[in-house]
Amino acid sequence: MSRIGKMPIPVPDQVRVEFEGQRVTVEGPRGVLAFDVHPNMQVALADNEMIVTRPNDTNQNKALHGLTRALLANMVTGVTQGFTKRLVINGVGFRSEVQGSTLTLQVGYSHPVQIEAPEGISFEVDRTGRFITVLGNDKELVGEIAARIRAVRKPEPYQGKGIAYEGEVIRRKAGKAGRVGGKK
Question: For the domain 9-80, what is the CATH code?
Answer without folding.
Answer: 3.90.930.12
